[in-house]
Amino acid sequence: MNKDTITLTNNRDAKSYEFPILNATVGPSVVDISTFYKETDMFTYDEGYTSTASCRSSITYIDGEKGKLMYRGYDIAYLAKKKTFLDTAYLLLNGELPNKEELDNFSFEMQKRSFVNEGVKNLFDAFPDHAHPMAILSAGVSALSAFYYKHLEINTKEEYKEMANRIVAKIPTLAAFSHRYSNGLPIIYPDMNRGFTENFLYMLRSYPHNYVELKEIEIKALDTIFTLHADHEQNASTTAVRNLASTNAHPYAAISAGIGALWGKSHGGANESVIRQLEMIGSVDRVDEFIAKAKDKEDPFRLMGFGHRVYKNFDPRATILKDIRNELMHELGISSELVDVANKIEEIALSDEYFISRNLYPNIDFYSGLILQALKIPKEMFAVIFVIGRTPGWIAQWSELNKQKTIKIARPRQLYTGPNDRTPEY
Ligand code: ACO
Hints:
Layout: E1 5-10, E2 15-22, E3 30-31, H1 36-40, E4 60-63, E5 68-71, E6 74-75, H2 76-82, H3 85-94, H4 100-112, H5 119-125, H6 133-147, H7 157-182, H8 196-205, H9 216-228, H10 236-246, H11 251-263, H12 270-281, H13 287-295, H14 316-332, H15 337-351, H16 353-357, H17 364-374, H18 382-402
Antiparallel strand pairs: 1-2, 2-3, 4-5, 5-6
The chain binds acetyl coenzyme *A.
Acetyl coenzyme *A is lined by residues 270, 294, 302-309, 358, 360, 363-365.
C-alpha cells in the first residue's frame, strides 16, 4: 500500500477510499480530497475552513505552536528589526529581498506613483463629513479601476509590476485623503522627497504651510506595524481576495473585497476594540473588576487583545511591538491613565493562572492600538492602517493564484438543510 495516502472507510456500506497525502515544505501535510465527491458521492463539511487548506502557497508560513511567522522563508523578527516595510513589500511582491539598487528604484517608484488622479477628489467630495474612512478608502480603490481602465488586463511581468507598484504607492494617499475628507480637513498632497511611511504620516497630520515635525521613532513604529501586517497566510480578507481572483477579477476589485473583509470587527477592527475597552475600563482601580469579569464563565466579557486562534504560545508580532511601544512611549514621554490601565492588565494577565493555562497572551492588537494612539492616529483609521500594510500581501496572493496553469473558480458546496419539493401542482 502506498504510505503517502489516507484510507477512509464509509461505515454505512463498508466501502474504503484512498486519498493522496501531499507534503508541505514545513508544517502539516494535507490530504488531497479533490476527487472525494466523484468517488464517494458526498461532500466534506468544514465551516470556517478550520481543517481545510484552500490553496498551495509559497508566500507566508505560520507555526502557531512555536509562535513563528515567515514571509518567503524570512523570519518576521528579522524583517521587522533589520529591514523596512518597503523591503518587505518588495519581498512579498517579487519573491526576493531587494538589493540596494532595487530598493532605491522601488522607493522612487513609490514616490513617483503616490499621486492620484485629480478626479478622485471629485469622487471624495461627494462623501458626507464623518463618513467612515474605510468606506471612502474602499470606494477609492474600486474607483482606481475606472481611472486605469486600460490597465485591467494583467498578462506580462511588466504589467504585473506596474499594477503592483501603482496600487501599493497610491493606497497611502487614498488612506490619508480618507481621513482628511472624513474630518473636513484640507488634503495634503504627497511629498516626493519623503520616504513611504514618513510621507503617509505627513499627509495624515500636516496642515498647509504648517508641516509637522516627525520623529524617527514615530516613523519606525508605524513602518514596523506595516511590516507586521503585510501578510498572514489565508486569513479572511486574503481568502476574499483569492476568491475574486479565481473568477478572473482584476486586482482593484479583488483588493476592494479584501478591504471589505478587513473592515469586519473580528478581523481588522480588533485593535480599535482594544482601545475602546481600555477607555471603558478607564482607571487602574477598575482593572481587577474587569479581570474577574473576563475569568467568569457566566459573563461573556473578554479581554480584548488577548488570545489568538492560530498562535497558541505567543504572537511573535506582539513581542516585537511590545518593545516598539516601550521605546515610543519613552521617547515621546507619553504617560496616561490609558497606558497605566493597559500595563496593569498586561501584568496581571501574564501572571494569572486563568490566562497562563489557556495560553492567553497579548496579541498584536493589544500593542498596535496603543502605538497608533501614541502616533495621534484616530481609532477609525486603525483598520485603514492595516489595509496599507496588508496590500502587498494581497497583491502577492492575487498574483500567485493568477500564475497557476489552471485556475479553479472558488465554488464551495453545502449541506442543504432547507425544505424539499414544496411546489404545488400549477
Ligand atoms: N479573555 C478571557 N478569556 C478568553 C479570552 C479573552 N480574550 N480568549 C479566550 N478566552 C478563554 C475562553 O473563554 C476559553 O475558556 P474555557 O476553555 O474555559 O472555555 C478559552 O480561553 C479558549 O477560548 P476560545 O474562544 O476557544 O479560543 P479561540 O482560539 O477560538 O479564540 C480569539 C481566539 C477569538 C482571538 C479569542 O481569544 C478572543 O476572543 N480574544 C479577544 C478578541 C481579540 O483580541 N481578537 C483579536 C485576535 S488577533 C487578530 O485577529 C489579528
